[in-house]
From TrEMBL:
Keywords: ATP-binding, Cytoplasm, Disulfide bond, Nucleotide-binding, RNA-binding, Transferase, tRNA processing, tRNA-binding
Protein name as catalogued: tRNA-specific 2-thiouridylase MnmA
Annotated compartments: Cytoplasm
Species, as recorded: Mycolicibacterium hodleri
Active site residues of this protein: 101, 193
Length: 360
């Protein structure tokens, strides 16, 4: 097969490319230039897709003796990921930009270009597995990335390859070292790739501006003023601008955000309990909608936030009734459904959370 490998410059995609070469495929590496300021370098392990990363990817391609290109996807990335991220926070939501990048850039724009150029498949360094065309969790549960891939449909998965999903991360680093790849010890990137400083609040504030509002308790008492709801997310405890705990002596958390009025509501930990989720724009990874109510597990964050649930399709949405509550669930997050399996949980579907209901 002709395989295009998305090479970020990290150890995971480098080993993925090497394994594709070992398998005898006709391999080409591509690095996505996603920043409009390519001269910006990473700071430690923060960020990715920098000029430094492109150089690392090119050196790996040279060792593997495969063609290598850098493709400019900065405009697409800005429109579909960064602008979406900013707009979502301005609405009081909490998006996951990695989910949007996979959905809109890597497995939409990039995959479409690869197929148009005659490639048979797109390989990436994601920790996930495809078994008989079905998306499953990776062997390494700590590194599993099936959640951020849960937005992919059956057509996109049909031309995807995840070469390292069957291997624990420590072994991937060992393999890279054995192959003489300098990226073997390169730190993993953390935080949001387009905010290498790690200061999300400042990044959003520079783009959204000041939109003053109030922080209020359950009784409507104003506890503090703020410069914009973009500085808050559901479940947040620190940085609320309020003095001390609640009347009960316990910590207070952000329990709701009203972007229209600029009101941030705070309450106790129990006020964060959510029992029902409604997800819009569902994607069914196996290609067909759920058949009646389905017992499954729902995951609402890339790492953690998992609960057993009964899920069904209603009026084009996914409605999940949770067996036990989840805390800190925000609209804008992605809910991914899994069918538990000893061989690796299977992804059934995903949707963007529109309602997080505290009522059972």
């Amino acid at each position: 097969m002709r395989v295009l490998v998305a090479m970020s410059g990290g150890v995971d995609s480098s080993v993925a490319a090497a394994r594709m070469v070992d398998a005898g495929h006709d391999v080409v590496g591509v690095h996505l230039a996603l920043s409009s300021a390519p001269g910006t370098l990473r700071t430690g392990s923060r960020g990715c897709c920098s000029k430094e990363d492109a150089g690392d990817a090119r050196r790996v391609a040279d060792i593997l003796d495969i063609p290598f290109y850098v493709w400019d996807f900065a405009d697409r990335f800005k429109e579909d990921v960064i602008d979406d991220f900013v707009a979502s926070y301005a609405r009081g939501e909490t998006p996951n930009p990695c989910v949007r990048c996979n959905e809109k850039v890597k497995f939409s724009a990039l995959s479409a270009r690869a197929l148009a150029l005659g490639f048979d498949a797109l390989a990436t360094g994601h920790y996930a597995r495809l078994v008989d065309g079905r998306l499953r969790r990776a062997v390494d549960g700590d590194k599993d990335q099936s959640y951020v891939l849960g937005v992919l449909n059956a057509h996109q998965l049909a031309t995807a390859i995840f070469p390292i999903g069957d291997t624990p991360k420590p072994r991937i680093r060992e393999e890279a070292a054995e192959r003489g790849l300098a990226v073997a010890g390169k730190p993993d990137s953390h935080d949001i790739c387009f905010i290498p400083s790690g200061d999300t609040k400042a990044f959003l504030g520079a783009r959204i501006g000041v939109r003053r509002g109030a922080v209020v308790d359950a009784g409507g008492t104003v506890l503090a003023e703020h410069d914009g709801v973009h500085g808050f997310t559901i479940g947040q405890r620190k940085g609320l601008g309020i003095e001390g705990p609640g009347p009960d002596g316990l910590p207070r958390y952000v329990t709701a955000i009203d972007a229209e009025s600029g009101t941030v509501h705070v309450g106790g930990a129990s006020d964060l309990d959510v029992w029902r989720l409604v997800g819009e724009r569902p994607v069914f990874t196996a290609g067909s909608p759920l058949d009646g109510p389905v017992e499954c597990e729902v995951q609402v964050r890339a790492h953690g936030g998992i609960a057993a649930a009964v899920v069904e399709v209603r009026d084009g949405t996914l409605v999940a009734s949770l067996r036990s509550p989840l805390r800190g669930v925000a609209t804008g997050q992605t809910m991914v459904l899994y069918r538990p399996d000893p061989e690796g949980d299977e992804v059934l579907a995903s949707a963007t959370i529109a309602v997080a209901d505290r009522q059972r």
